[in-house]
C-alpha cells in the first residue's frame, strides 16, 4: 500500500471510456462513498464496496468523509504508481489524500480521499493468499482506508496489528463469511 499526497487525475488518459460510469454517491451519516469502475477483470457489487467503506470509517470514528474508490486494472495502477510515487510497477492499492485534518486535530474535520484498487492484482494475489479475488479487493479497500486514518505497517508488529484490524472490519461488514451481509445500508451496523 502506498500513500500519495497529490491528488491524481484518475481520468487520464481520456482515450478510453470507463467500463461502467460514475456511480451515484451513497451517503451514510456524513460519509459519502463513490465507486468508479474502470476495469473489466472482475464484476463487483458496488453496494457492498460502499458498505464496507462506510463500516470501516464509522468504526474508526470518522463522522464526515468523501471517499472515491476507483477500480482499475494493472496498467492503470502502474501508470498511477509511476506518476504519484515514482514506482514503475502495478500495486494493490494507492491512497491519495485530497483533504485531511492535521494529525492532532479532532476527527470531526472532514476527510476527502481517493483510493485506486487494482482488481487485476487482486485476482492474481488471491490464489497466493488462498482467498477469493473479492476478499482481496475488500482487504485492499480497508487497508487503504486504515492508512488514510494514520495506521501504519512499516514494521512487522504494526503490520500484524493492521492486518488484525482489516480482518475485524471485513468480518463486521459480513465480507469474510459464506453468507455475506444482505443489507448494504450502514445504519446500526457499526461493530
From TrEMBL:
GO cellular component: cytoplasm
InterPro entries the UniProt entry points to: MetalPrtase_cat_dom_sf_prd, YbeY, YbeY_CS
Source taxon at top rank: Bacteria
Cofactor: how bound: Binds 1 zinc ion.
Keywords annotated in UniProt: Cytoplasm, Endonuclease, Hydrolase, Metal-binding, Nuclease, Ribosome biogenesis, rRNA processing, Zinc
CC cofactor: Zn(2+)
Predominant location category: cytoplasm
Binding site residues for Zn(2+): 143, 147, 153
Molecular function, one GO term: metalloendopeptidase activity
Localization per Swiss-Prot or TrEMBL: Cytoplasm
Single GO biological process annotation from the record: rRNA processing
Region (Disordered): 1-23
EC number(s) from the headed UniProt entry: 3.1.-.-
Function comment: Single strand-specific metallo-endoribonuclease involved in late-stage 70S ribosome quality control and in maturation of the 3' terminus of the 16S rRNA.
Family: Belongs to the endoribonuclease YbeY family.
Identification of the protein by name: Endoribonuclease YbeY
Gene behind this protein: ybeY
Amino acid at each position: 500500500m502506498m500513500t500519495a499526497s497529490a491528488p491524481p487525475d484518475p481520468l487520464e488518459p481520456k482515450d478510453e471510456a470507463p467500463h461502467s460510469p460514475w456511480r451515484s454517491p451513497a451517503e451514510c451519516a456524513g460519509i459519502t462513498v463513490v465507486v468508479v469502475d474502470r476495469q473489466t477483470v472482475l464484476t463487483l457489487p458496488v453496494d457492498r464496496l460502499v458498505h464496507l467503506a462506510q463500516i470501516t470509517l464509522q468504526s474508526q470514528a470518522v463522522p464526515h468523509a468523501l471517499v472515491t474508490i476507483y477500480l482499475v486494472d494493472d496498467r492503470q495502477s502502474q501508470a498511477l504508481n509511476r506518476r504519484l510515487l515514482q514506482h514503475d510497477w502495478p500495486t494493490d492499492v494507492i491512497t491519495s489524500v485530497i483533504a485531511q485534518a492535521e494529525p492532532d486535530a479532532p476527527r470531526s474535520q472532514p476527510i476527502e480521499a481517493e483510493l485506486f484498487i487494482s482488481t487485476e492484482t487482486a485476482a492474481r494475489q488471491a490464489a497466493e493468499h488462498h482467498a477469493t479475488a473479492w476478499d482481496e479487493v475488500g482487504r485492499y479497500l480497508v487497508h487503504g482506508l486504515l492508512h488514510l486514518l494514520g495506521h501504519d505497517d512499516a514494521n512487522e508488529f504494526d503490520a500484524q496489528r493492521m492486518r488484525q484490524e482489516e480482518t475485524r472490519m471485513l468480518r463486521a461488514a459480513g465480507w469474510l463469511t459464506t453468507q455475506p451481509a444482505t443489507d448494504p445500508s450502514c445504519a446500526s451496523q457499526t461493530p
